[in-house]
Design brief:
By secondary structure, the chain is an alpha+beta fold. It has 6 helices and 10 strands, in the order H-E-E-E-E-H-E-E-H-E-H-E-H-H-E-E. It folds into 2 domains: 78 residues; 143 residues, no CATH class.
């Protein structure tokens, strides 16, 4: 006998989803009013976290994404929809926060290429474009550490023929505690940068695996720094 598995979505499920979306809309608007002091325009609400039951695809209201707009700027709020709440996070200030973060990086004016990520729900979310970073603390221009204290940041920063590279390693742990991992690579030339496997750094991998990747690219690299939690290692290939 063969039993079929049903990812059933009943009329009752649809009614609950409508209720969750309505509550998420109210929660998100109240959250923004409380955090920023303005009232945004509602655009849409979507379920992000579905039921843990493998036999259904129903919305449980535990994780909702609400799209809003204010002053011609579209942004998102992550919030629950199964009860009243003003606890959430949003990406309204994402560009401003990422721009401020970049100014703190070692010799940021000479970075050739960079990629920024943050880890959320087991995924590495690309925030290089400045628009995907969601936080719950209001950024006032002077509290970047507080804003990022619960954000798990990962970064790849690539330079070309930088001549003061070794000096960077000394303050990476104390100055950049918000970064779980930093790959800071100094290529010998633009030609070497183009020849190397620059997308090969394993952000979610182990320390040893990352060392292997850097060593594999060593013919193209002048020197490199790896910060992995509270460890910093400097590599020189000249």
């Amino acid at each position: 006998m063969v039993l079929g598995l049903c990812g059933c979505y009943t009329k009752e499920d649809k009614e609950f989803e409508k209720i969750y979306k309505k509550q998420a809309k109210e929660n998100a608007i109240n959250y923004i009013e409380n955090k920023y002091g303005f009232t945004p325009k509602f655009i849409s609400a979507h379920c992000l976290k579905m039921s843990n039951d493998i036999y259904t695809n129903t919305c449980n209201g535990n994780h909702m994404s609400v799209q809003l707009e204010y002053n011609n700027k579209i942004f998102y709020v992550d919030i629950i929809g199964n009860e009243v709440s003003i606890e959430g996070k949003d990406n309204y200030q994402s560009e401003e926060i990422v721009a401020s973060l970049m100014k703190l990086l070692p010799d940021s004016n000479n970075i050739y290429i960079y990629r920024l990520y943050y880890r959320e729900y087991g995924n590495d979310v690309n925030i290089t474009n400045g628009i995907n970073l969601s936080v719950n603390t209001y950024y006032d221009g002077n509290n970047l550490s507080d804003v990022l204290k619960d954000v798990k940041l990962l970064g790849v920063f690539e330079y070309v023929n930088h001549d003061r590279f070794e000096n960077m390693k000394n303050n990476l742990i104390s100055s950049y505690p918000m970064f779980e991992k930093m790959f800071i690579i100094n290529f010998k030339s633009i030609a070497d940068y183009n020849a190397a496997d620059t997308m090969g750094y394993n952000l979610s991998g182990t320390y040893n695996k990352t060392e292997e990747i850097i060593n594999d690219n060593s013919p193209y690299i002048k020197d490199a720094i790896l910060k992995d939690y509270d460890r910093v290692h400097y590599y020189n290939f000249e």
